[in-house]
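agent> fetching stored inputs for the inosinic acid docking request
agent> found them:
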Amino acid sequence: MSSTVKPVGSKSDPRLSGRAVKRIAFDEAAIAKRVTELGREITTAYPDGDLLVLGLLKGSFIFLSDLVRQITRPLQVDFLVATSYGDGTVSSGTVNLVYDPETELEGKDILLVEDIIDSGRTLNRLMAILKEREPRSLEICALLHKRIAEGLRYNAKFVGFDAPNEFLVGYGLDHAENFRHLPYIASLQ
Ligand code: IMP
Ligand code: MG
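agent> prediction call returned; pasting tokens
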């Protein structure tokens, strides 16, 4: 895993409102480079058909908005909302779907975009739900993959980075709804 270790603290970034982060795991430049590559990979992987990019909110909102601008073929965008974490840093284990896309999934190529794969519970549950709607294909694009999900029943075809087994925030990822707006990905103190 290539990650630049740069200590940052509340003094160096006013966005952190006094909370120090341990280190920057992936900086803006590294993210932009990888998202561009992913866009190319995805464009090549879908030479034809109706592509629906389905973002899992809220965590994927920044990644998805950057990613779709690097996919140079026709596509549609919709969102899903699922909750699995409360205010803590450990998965509650229960995954609830609180918003369901209005877009028809049947016969389409669906690319499910997730911020991070941790325990894999969210994806196991969502993939099962989406499969029932008979899309032409169903693949996962995750910005980060902790590679610790033992029970993950699906392979993520597109992965941005292998992530350290730490609690990460920024670029869409939150801790108790904070830090989503950081332009980099950092591990929390
Ligand atoms: P899983 O179901 O355990 O794979 O967790 C997936 C969801 O938990 C992700 O979509 C995130 O919203 C959240 N999550 C997991 N790990 C982290 C983390 O390190 N930082 C912030 N959110 C996380
Ligand atoms: Mg979250």
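agent> quick read of the result: The first strand starts at residue 21 and ends at 26.
agent> awaiting further instructions
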